[in-house]
Amino acid sequence: MTFRVEAVKVRDPERSIWLRLSSLRSCIRRMCHATGERFDDAGARYGIGRPAPWPAPPDESLLLAVLEDVEARRAPALERRRAFDAARRQSKRQGNRQLSKLDRAELRRVRDPAADGIVSTGRTHDEASHAGTDPVRRRGCLWWWP
Fold it and tell me: Measuring CA to CA, which residue among 137, 92, 110, 93 is closest to residue 35?
């Protein structure tokens, strides 16, 4: 389901508090997907990490406060994504059907804000992470040994 559907479920007082908590976790998961944050980190920040810390049902005010914060944190990421999408549609109208290297880097930044500091060296991940080591072939696979 979408973020909005899950948010409506969290706000619905007719639903079980446990179902509302499950919907809140879904909202947090979608917020993490939009912002690039890890779900475990967000769950720990909101006190909704694994395993469930409540022997008793959580308070309704807590659910609503967490939902409001999740919506606030998700909004800037969505704005960045909408701006990129609008610029992409405009460039497609002008005939630029393929992403340039700069557009790919921008899309990577929009999808994962934590990747801002990552600079491409022009090498593949394996080459970069195993620089200075010798590859060894075993049964058709390439193994790296330090």
Answer: 110
Q: In sequence order, what are the residues at sequence separation of 6 or more whose Cβ sits closer than 8 angstroms to the Cβ of residue 98?
A: none
Domains of the chain: which residue ranges? 3-115
**34: confidence class by pLDDT, cuts 50, 70, 90:** confident
Reduce the DSSP state of residue 136 to 3 states and report it: strand
Section 101-129 average pLDDT: 62
Instruction: Tell me the pTM.
Output: 0.67
pLDDT tens sequence across 117-144? 444 444 444 444 445 555 444 445 444 4
- The neighbouring-strand residues paired with 137 are 142
- DSSP structural state of residue 55: S
Instruction: Please identify which residue in the block is written with the tokens 């290297």.
Output: 101
C-alpha closest to that of 24 among 41, 36, 12? 12
DSSP summary character for residue 93? H
The alpha carbon of 89 is separated from its chain's Cα centroid by a whole number of angstroms, namely 23
